[in-house]
Amino acid sequence: MKQFFLLILSLIFIISCSNNDSEVIDYNDNNLSSGGVMINAMSAEPSNLISMIAGDSASSAIASKIFNSLIRYDENLNFTSDIAKSWKISEDQKTITFKIKKGLEWSDGKPLTSADVYFTWKLITNPNTRTPYGSDYTLVSEAKVPDEHTFIVTYDDNYAPALDTWASLEILPKHILENEDVNSTFFSRKPTGSNYYKLGDWVSGQQVNLTKSENGVFGAPYIEKLTSRIIPDTSSQFLELSAGNIDLMNINPIQFKRVFPAKPKLKNRTALYKEMGNGYTYLGFNLKREPFNNKKVRQAINYAINKEEVIKGVLLGLGEPISSPYKPGTRWSDPSLMPYVYSPKKALSLLREAGYKMSADNFLVKDGKALEFEIITNQNKQREMTAVLIQRRLKEIGIKVSIRVIEWASFVNRFIKPGDFDVVVLGWSLSLDPDQFNIWHSSQQGPGQFNFVGYDNKKVDQLLEKGRRELDLDKREKIYHEFSKQLLDDSPIVYLYAGYGLTAVNKRIKGIKSPAPPAGIYHNSQDWYIPKRLRRNELTNK
Amino acid sequence: MSLFKGNLLAIIGFIIISIILFVAIFAPLLSPFDPNYIDINSILLPPSYDHFMGTDGLGRDVLSRMLYGARISLFVGFVAVGIATLIGIFLGSIAGFYGGWLDSIIMRLVDIMLSIPSFFLILAVIAFLTPSIWNIMIVIGLTSWMGVTRLVRAEFLSLRQRDYVLASIVMGTSNTKVITKHLLPNSLTPIIVSSVLGIASAVLIESGLSFLGLGVQAPTASWGNILTDGKEYIQFAWWLSLFPGLAILVTVLGYNLLGEGLRDVLDPKNK
Amino acid sequence: MLIGISLISFFIMHLAPGDITSSEAAFNPKASEESRQKLRELYNLDKPVIIQYGLWLKRMVELDFGNSFASHQRPVLWEKKDGKGNVIKGLIQESLPITLLINLIGIFLIFSVSIVLGTISAVKQNSIVDKSITFFIFVAFAIPGFWLALLLMYWTGVVNQWLPISGLHSLDYKSFSEVGQFFDLLKHLILPVSISMLSGLAGISLYVRNGMLDVLHQDFITTARSKGLKEKNVIFTHALKNAILPLITIIGLSIPGLIGGSVIAESIFAIPGMGKLFYDSVLMRDFPVIMGILTIGSVLTLIGTLIADIGYAWADPRIRKGLVK
C-alpha cells in the first residue's frame, strides 16, 4: 500500500513541475507583425464545409473564413466588394451586372473567374443538391457570363433582397467540383477556397486548424493560424479561457458583469467587448386564438410589460429595447419610432375598452371567462427568466399566466408548426436585409412556414411586396419604415429586447475595433494580430 | 432498531435518510422563500444571513430550492424505483413460479435489456419524448427492473421447492394465492435492499440527465438542475455547485449505507 | 438477440417527434419548407416505418449502417473510399477506439485497485483501515460524476496548472516525440478515466470485500490456517482466488454501465468518443448513427460478457479441469 501512495505522490509531483504561470506579461506591446496562433472554442463540430449544404453554425463559421462571395457587408453594414469589384443595377431594376476583379486565384493557384460564380449558382439551384437555401437563387430567370470577369443575373421581377443573397452565396471552385457529386464529395472535408485562410488540419472531434493563405482575394491575414477547439460544454470552455488555453469566447451577461470583475487575474489577461447583437427576443401571440385576435388586448399586454426591467434582470442591462425587427443603427431601423412604454394604467384602460372587468379576486374577466393563457418557450435560461418577469407584471393587472418550457424539437413540431399555442417567447435574427416577407406576409401561414403567429394585414402585405421590388435604397427605406410603424401599431408580437453580443478576448490579440462598428468586432478579424512577444510559443517553455 | 445494533453504517444511513425525508416533506414550512421567486436584484449573491446558501443566476434563494429539490429528487427516486420494483416483482414471480418457456422469454428479455447500455437508452427515450418529470421517472423505472426480476426469480426458484409451498399447491390453492401469500413475503429481503439501492441510483441518474439538459425541467428545482445552473459559474459562485453536489452525495450515500446495512442485517448467512 | 435489440432501438427512435430536418435549418427563414421536404424525401424519411425498418435490417446484416444524416454522408461505421482514393473515416470508427481505450484502462484499474482495496478491507475487517476504506468506497459511489469532474478540472487545471482541462491532445502534440505523445495522452486521460471508473471502482471494491469476507469464513480457510500455513499464503493463494472468480463476471456485467457513463465524462472533457457521438445524434435525430451506436454498444457488451464468461471458465480450475478431461 505504501508503495502505491508513494507512486501517486511522485506522479503528482512530476506533473506539477511541468507547468508554470508565474511570469508577468506585458500586454501593452503593440508591435504589428505577422504570425502567431489564435485559439477559440466551438461547442459543436462542423459537419460540412460546403455552406450551401451544411445547416449548422459551426460549419458556416469555419467556411466563411475559407470562401468568398460576390459582395459582402462592410463595417457599417453597407455592401462592398468581395470577389466583385463593382456591380450595377439596370434601369428596370431587373438585372444586376457584377464586374469581377482580375487576377484572383484559388488557394491551389488556379484562376477564379465568372465561370466559378456561374457554376456555384447552377449548383445551388439544382434540385438534386441537398440544400434548404435554394429558393432565393431560383428567382434568377437567366444568368450570363459574357466574359471571364462579368457575371450578369436577370430576375423576372425586381427582387430587392437579391444583393443580400449574393453576399451570402459562397463561391465554389468549378475546376474541382464540376465532376463531383456535391452532396457526398470529399471536398466538404477538404475544401479549396479563396479567402484569407485555408483548411490546415481537421482532427475529427477535437479541433479544426486554419492556416493563412498567401494568395487570397484580399491577400494574407496577420495571424498565421486559427485553431478552433471543439469543447461541447460551455463551462469547460470557460475554464479553458480562465486558464489561458483559449483566446476568445462568447460570454453571457453574468460572466461579463459579475464574474470577470471578480477575478483579477482573469481580468488582467482578458479584454471584454460588447456590440449590438444579431437577434431580438419577442413575445408572440397566436393571432388565430381568442383573445389575441383583438388588437386592444395585444397592445394592452405590450403596455403592461416593463421592458427595461426585463433587460436589467435578464441581460443585466446589456441590451436595448427595439421597436422594429431591424438592427438599431442601420438605416432600416427608424430612430423616431418609439417602443411601447411601461404603463399598466394604459394597459388596464385598453382592456376595459375590450370589455374586461376586474373580478372580486383581482382577475380580469369578460363574459364569465378569465383572461388567462399559457406562455411557452424553449430551453433557454434568458427566455425562461423573461417569461417569469412577464408573468409577474401581467398578474399585477389581473392576467393569469402559466409558463411551460419545452425542448426544441418538440417545441417546433408539436406546438409551433400545428399552431397549437397561446403565446410564445422566442427570437428572430435582426435581419440585415429588410425583407420580412417570409415572417409577416399573409401567404406564409402554412405549416412549417414562418408566419406561425397568423398575421394577416392587407396593407402590410402590400408594403412587403413593394419592398421586395424596390431596389432604390432611399425609397426602400421609406417603405420599411412604414411597415415597421404598422407592425408596431398592430402589435402581433411584443418586442422585448435586442441583447448585446459579448465577447471575451485574450489581450494578446490586438487590432480589435472598440467600440464595435455596426457589423461587430469580427468584421475585421483578418486585421487582428498578435505581437511577437505575446505569442504562445514564446510565452511558455513548451 | 435492535436489529441494527452493531451495524453503524446502516444506522448512519438511516439517520441521513430520515433527515432528508423530513426536510423534503416539510419543505414548504422550512423554506424562507418561494423557490421560484425570481429577484432580479439578488442575482448570484454569496451565502449571507438572508440567503443561507446564496442565490442563483435568476436571484432565487438556493436554500429554498434545495429544500424543494429534495422533494423532487426523492420523488423521482421513489416513483422510478416503485415502477421498476413492480415490474420486477411481476416478471420475476412469473418466471420463477411457472418456469418453462415463460421463464425463457422473460430471461431473454432481461438479457436484451441488460446488454443495451441503459444510460444510452434513457437518454434517447427522454430526448425523443419531451423531458418531463414523469417521463424521467417512467423511463428510469423501465430500465431498472432487470435486477429485481432476477432476484425475485431466484428467490422463487429456491422457495418453490420448500415443503410448505408444495403442500399448498397440492391442497389446491390458486397460483396467485401461493405467489402472494407464501412466496412473495419471503422474498422481501432482496427486494427491499435492491429498492433502497435503486433509489440512490435513480437520484444519480436524474442529476446526470439534468447535466445534459434532459432532467427535471425548469423552473422546477431539482438538485441536478441547480447543479447544472451552477456549473457555468463554478469559479465564481461556489455555493451553487457545492450545496447541491453535497446534497446528492449525502443522500445517495445515505441510501447506499442503509441498503448495504439492511443487506447485512437481513441476510441470514451473516456471522 | 440482436434482432430484439434492433427492434427496441428502432421503435424508440421513431417515438421522436421531428427528424433531421427539424434541426437548425428548421427555423431559419432562408430555408423554405419545400427544400426541407425535398431533404426528407432524399433521406427516405417519408416512407412508412415498416419499410424503413426493413431497409435498415437488411443493411445491418451487412454491417452497413449507412451514412449519417447530420454529418452529411459520413459513414456511420467504417471508412469509405471515394473514387479518388480519399478516405472518409466512419463516425463510429473514429470515436469507438477512444471510448474503448478509456473504458479498458478503467476496467484494468478497477480490477487491480478494487482487489487491493477489497482484500485489505476484508483482512483487516473492522479496523480503522477497513472503516476508512469502506467510507471512501461509499463516498466514491455516491458522488455525482460531473460535479467531481468540474471541481477537479478547476482545481487541477485553473488554480494549479497541473493537468490539461479538456481535450485529448495538447496543441503542439504533433511536435512531441513518441514518448512525449504518450505522456501527453496520459495527462489528458487521467481525469476522464478517474471520473468514469469511480463508481465502478466503488461497487467492485465492496463486492471484493464482501466476497473475501465470505470466503475467509469458510471451512477450508480455517483448515488451511490450522494446517499452519502462513497468513499471507492463506489470503493470496486460497481465499483470493476463490473470491475473484465471480469478480470476472461482475466486471463483464458492468461494461454497459461504463459505456453509458461515458456520455457525461466525454462531454465535459471534450473527448470525441462514442458517448458524446450518441448524445449529439440523439439531439440531431440522426437515426442511422443512433441505431449504429445502440447496436455496436450492445455488441460490445455481448463480447464483453463472452470474454468474462471465457475468463471465468479458464480461471475456475473446476471448469478447466472438466474441459481437459
Describe this structure in words.
The complex is a heterotrimer of chains A (542), B (271) and C (325). Helix content of chain A is 31%, strand content 21%. Chain A is an alpha+beta fold. In chain A, the strands form 5 sheets. In chain A, strands 11, 12, 13, 14, 18, 19, 20 and 21 form an 8-stranded mixed β-sheet that branches. Chain A has a 4-stranded mixed β-sheet with strand order 1-10-9-8, covered by helices on one side. In chain A, strands 4-5-7-6 form a 4-stranded antiparallel β-sheet. In chain A, helix 10 packs antiparallel against helix 12 and helix 11 runs antiparallel to helix 13. The longest helix of chain A has 18 residues. In chain A, 47% of the residues are buried. About 1% of the residues of chain A have low confidence. With 271 residues, chain B is mainly alpha-helical. Chain B has 12 helices and no strands. The model of chain B has no long low-confidence stretch (mean pLDDT 83). Chain C has 325 residues and is mainly alpha-helical. In chain C, helix 7 crosses helix 9 and helix 11 packs antiparallel against helix 12. Chain C is globular. In chain C, 44% of the residues are buried. About 4% of the residues of chain C have low confidence. The chains are: A alpha+beta (542), B mainly alpha (271), C mainly alpha (325). Chains in contact: A-B, A-C, B-C. Chains A and C meet through helix 1, strand 10, helix 7 and helix 14 of A and helix 2, helix 4, helix 6 and helix 10 of C.
